[in-house]
Amino acid sequence: MVECPVCSAELLEMSMEQAEEHVNGCLDRSVLEEKKRIKKTSIKIISKQEPTMEIRGAKAVLEEIEQTEPDTEEIPQYDIPLEKASPQASYMSKHPLPSYKRMPHTTFTVDAFKYGKLDFCTGYFLTHFHSDHYGGLSRGFTGHIYCSRITANCVQYRIGVDPQFIHALPMNRRCNVQGVFVTFIDANHCPGAVIIVFEIPQANGGMARIVHTGDFRASPDHVKQILQILAVEHNQPVRPAMVLNKLNSYGSPPIDYLYLDTTYLQPTYAFPSQSQVVQAVAEFCFKVNSDKTYLPNLQTKSKQQKKPMQLTNWFKITSKAPTRTSKRRVLFVVGSYTIGKERLFIEIAQRLGARIYVAAAKRRMLECMGSRSLLQMLSDSMSAQVHVVEMSRVNMRGLTEYLEMAQKHAPFSSIVAFRPTGWSHAPGALYRQQPRGPDPPGSAVLQQLLAQNNQDPAQLIQHLAQISLLQSDSQFTIDSLKPRGASASVTIFPVPYSEHSSFAELGRFVCSLNTKHVVPTVSCDAANARWLQHWQNVNALFAQAAKSTQPELFSNAWIAFISNAK
Q1: Under a CB-based contact definition with an 8 Å cutoff, are residues 216 and 188 in contact?
Q2: pLDDT above 70: residue 316
Q3: How many helices (H) does the chain have, and how many strands (E)?
Q4: Pairing state of beta strands 515-520 and 255-260?
Q5: What angle do CA 564, 511, 447 make, to 5 degrees?
Q6: Quick check: 469 and 434 in contact, CB under 8 A?
Q7: Can you tell me the distance from the alpha carbon of 213 to that of 563, in angstroms, rounded to the nearest whole number?
Q8: Pick from 380, 410, 384, 391: which is nearest to 332 by CA?
Q9: Beta bridge partners of 183
Q10: Does pLDDT of 280 surpass 90?
């Protein structure tokens, strides 16, 4: 079954265009509903500004956003007096709390704000500031919220929760929260999004371990950071320098529960890496901007072309001298939600050497990130050449009207717009050919591979990767860009910029961790859920293989594979 990740409607019978239109419509409606519900406040933002830094592209700007708490030898303590530990929520809910929202062995929940008063809960963890995760959180909420500093800023600004109930934990540092050790690492989703590592001391002297991914875009760094954290004795501090060090060995104590973002747990979802998409789009914008004779007119070109066009055919070099019109500027527009997609519009602006215009509400959200370098790139003037707009405006009618408005401030001749979403890379006809993808291989196949290749770790890993669909992600270049709408003045490009993990990325992540139980946090059918068990079996096979060969040799082979999988 192919479902909409927002409303869970079945999309199997829809074409690629219909499926994308449906999902984008759901996303747009959720943003509009959020606007109607939330009242902005004038509460001071909790932020720590960094010194001015040299701009080095989107990666450098976003790295500056990470908080810089003092690097001490001690474990930060977050203890709540017992009389204040039981929240008195200001609303009730008819919906029962799903089991995956409550963390075992704790009195904590994760992203559980719409289920009314929870008498048992002494700590509400919020992974990031997207409405499907903080939904239900209101100004009068009196539970203790634990989140990143960026998310704390957003909660205080957009919702107005009393600051005494918001606890901003540092990144990449082990903290003691009510007797539970908690470490946040960046989730590679949106600014402030975190993966949470819980380590819970047990009465018998043991340790229960839980990893909650929230929403994330899995990467080799996540595997390395989690393994680094779990390798440190629980009574010792975990510091940023430790977490970010190079991983020297593969393996860790077992993780009891892995709560996994399974938004794209289906073999048909094989989209390119964020870095490929960001670089291709930025380079495309540079080419369009650097030569004004390269002006797209898809309708005219479509009539002239008898075969599908490549991007290089949409722009024709002319030998005529530039006209007055050619001196006018192209306006580059990027669709965005409340928070997210920052890497794309920052990289475009960096490549063009341009400023970024955002509306007042979006600017305020960017201020919550606490990056002085990012704020220096922003402009209050619509004459800036890169604009960030609401995703719901990225359509032909909306952008035509927007161009007319922008032309009152600067001589813009046309708009080139981008609608970033993972659904831009939907598999289309593949839905009809393989609606749920292939089944995972049985355990007998895994054991046969082990018997054949137990002395060659690299070969074993390559064979396992092939049958486990761990190498199926696609590539993305400038020629991959295809317009979904075009006129003489507006061209719209959907781009596969996903902030969730692809199927192969999920597989590599699960295969890399010694996990007893994997719990999906997004609904998935039984057929696709079988892949989770298969990947756990692969991890067990890795452990078995490591015993029959040199563990260090096997570790190096696996680390090399996950680091160079794309």
Answers
A1: yes
A2: no
A3: 19, 18
A4: parallel
A5: 110
A6: no
A7: 19
A8: 384
A9: 174, 197
A10: yes
- Cα angle: 447, vertex 452, 453; to 5 degrees: 100
CB atoms within 10 A of CB 496: 23
How far, in Å, CA of 136 to CA of 89, rounded? 10
Among 87, 190, 169, 81, smallest CA distance to 136 is for 87
Round to whole Å and give the CA distance between 406 and 413. 10
Report residue 152: phi and psi, to 5°: -60, -45
Which tokens is 467 given? 């049958």
Q: What token pair was written down for 222?
A: 């996540």
Q: Which residues pair with 210 in a beta bridge?
A: 198, 257
State residue 246's pLDDT score: 64
Cα→Cα distances 138→33, 98, 116, 194, 377, Å: 14, 20, 11, 21, 32
Q: How confident is the model at residue 334 (pLDDT cuts 50, 70, 90)?
A: very high
Ranges 23-37, 114-128, 197-211, 223-237: which has the least confidence: 23-37
> Residues 421-443: what's their mean pLDDT?
55
Q: Return the exposure string of 286-306: e unless at least 16 CB atoms fall within 10 Å of the residue's CB, then b.
A: eebbeebebbbbbeeeeeeee
Residue 102 is classified by DSSP as B
Percent of the chain whose pLDDT exceeds 90: 48
CB atoms within 10 A of CB 499: 23
- Contact between 179 and 201 under an 8 Å Cβ cutoff? The reply is yes
Could you read off the pLDDT of 383-426 as tens digits, one per residue? 999 999 999 999 999 999 999 999 999 999 999 999 997 655 54
Read off the tokens for 49.
Answer: 């500004």
Question: Hey, how many other C-beta atoms are within 10 angstroms of the C-beta on 88?
Answer: 10
Closest CA to 215 of 548, 555, 501: 501
Kindly indicate the confidence band of residue 33, based on its pLDDT and cuts at 50, 70 and 90: low
φ/ψ region of 125 (left if φ > 0, alpha if ψ in -120 to 50, else beta) reads beta
Phi and psi torsions of 186, nearest 5°: -65, 135
Residue partners of 433: CB distance under 8 A and separation at least 6 = none
Residue of 355, 353, 356, 421 lying closest to 389 (CA atoms)? 356
**3-state SS string for 143-196:** CCEEECHHHHHHHHHHHCCCHHHEEECCECCEEEECCEEEEEEECCCCCCCEEE
Q: Using an 8 Å Cβ cutoff, are 11 and 4 in contact?
A: yes
Residue 562 CB contacts under 8 Å (≥ 6 apart), including other chains: 220, 223, 508, 512
CA 281 to chain centre: 18
Q: Residues 239-276: pLDDT tens digits?
A: 888 877 766 556 678 999 999 999 999 888 888 889 99
Domains of the chain: 74-248 (3.60.15.10)
More confident of the two residues 556 and 327: 556
Could you give the 3-state DSSP secondary structure of residue 390? strand
pLDDT-based confidence at residue 93 (cuts at 50, 70, 90): low
Rounded Cα distance, 415 and 410, in Å: 12
Q: Where are the beta strands (DSSP E) in 405-545?
A: 412-420, 485-486, 490-495, 515-520
